Amino acid sequence: MKITWLGHSAFHLETATAKILIDPFFTGNPAFDEATRKDAAAGLTHILLTHGHGDHVGDTIKLAQETGATVLANADLAAWLGKKGVSKLDMGNTGGTVHFDGFSATFTQALHSSAQVTEDGTSHSLGSANGLVLHFEDEPTVYHMGDTDIFSDMALIRELHEPEIGLMPIGDRFTMGGAVAALACQRYFGFETVIPCHYASFPIVDQTADKFVAGMEGAQAKVAVATVGKGLSF
């Protein structure tokens, strides 16, 4: 498996059977390297969304129309995307699992919100905020937490899914900050590797992963502070 951070909470996962984008926020993301856009879209099979905020839905509509990739989102967000011209949609909701060729995706709880305000000033509720646990055949299990604070039922997510790789928001203000994210890792999970995200993208979130790295000192899990556009192999 190859995992590439594309800035903010956007990730590209490549396995033997799938090429997946999670929360593909490209346009307007100052941390995203536009030179990698072509590579991120090439051969794309799936787009997975944790919730409906613009910095996570991102370029989903355009990418889905250009590539024919299947989009997975919660039921409310999927219905909204269908009205926006996305034709290949799969939907689920908290606790549910959707099976694809070579992997499955389970919607977990996240402590966050999920809505968008359209050009006419109308606020559209787009279902629950979620995390996604991805189980692969012969590949590590990956947990993208979406946007969330710490919550004690993270212990149940570990018990149910035993994720080996965590993609964890650490930037504070809209999600848990680095110190709290480190506490979540150490108290509730047994990750082999954690890749921090949702930082260094906008001035009002933390610009480095330093607080998280400091909080993970002595932890069992390896912290992989990724470089945007540079893949990590597992």
Automatic annotation (TrEMBL):
Domain Metallo-beta-lactamase intervals: 7-198
Q: Which domain of life is it from?
A: Bacteria
Q: Does the keyword Hydrolase apply?
A: yes
Q: Please provide an example of a Pfam family that matches this protein in its UniProt record.
A: Lactamase_B_2
Q: Which InterPro entries match?
A: Metallo-B-lactamas, RibonucZ/Hydroxyglut_hydro, UPF0173, UPF0173_UPF0282_UlaG_hydrolase
Provide a Gene Ontology MF annotation, just one.
hydrolase activity
- KW Membrane (keyword) present: no
Q: Which UniProt keywords apply?
A: Hydrolase
Similarity section: Belongs to the UPF0173 family.
What's the protein name? UPF0173 metal-dependent hydrolase BJF93_16340
Query: What's the source species for this entry?
Result: Xaviernesmea oryzae
